[in-house]
Amino acid sequence: MSTKKIDFEAMSFDDLWSLHEQISQILAVRITSEKRELERRLAVLNRSRGAIEGADSDNAPSYKANGKARRAYPRVLPKYRNPQTSETWSGRGKQPRWLVAAIKTGHRIEEFAINGTGASRGRRHRA
């Protein structure tokens, strides 16, 4: 690189635009090469992690931050449905906004129960 200073204020618009395009091209090339290098390094790390764990990448379990495998949970069917938008809620976690708003306007949660399910029904046990 040359050490001479460039007076951008004295440059014409066309010269500045040309310089801008040159810088953009150089940056695009460097960003692409940096991205390729990072992807290569990531692939190496993933290969070494897979060899250590002995797990296939196709059916590998998801991992928490501490490195332990997460337990597989069964799918939870929805218990409540918004009749206006057909949004559903399983009854777990925070109540959705539509349900909170409906309860505040005087509705009861049982009014939104999907047929065949109910909040008061509890768990079914096999005989």
TrEMBL record:
Annotated PANTHER family: DNA-BINDING PROTEIN STPA, PTHR38097
Domain (DNA-binding protein H-NS-like C-terminal): residue spans on this chain: 67-114
Family note: Belongs to the histone-like protein H-NS family.
Protein name: H-NS histone family protein
SMART domains found in the cross-reference section: HNS
Region (Disordered): 53-72
Pfam families named among the record's database cross-references: Histone_HNS
Localization per Swiss-Prot or TrEMBL: Cytoplasm, Nucleoid
InterPro entries the UniProt entry points to: H-NS_C_dom (IPR027444), H-NS_C_dom_sf (IPR037150)
Keywords: Cytoplasm, DNA-binding
The keyword rRNA-binding appears for this protein: no
Main localisation: cytoplasm
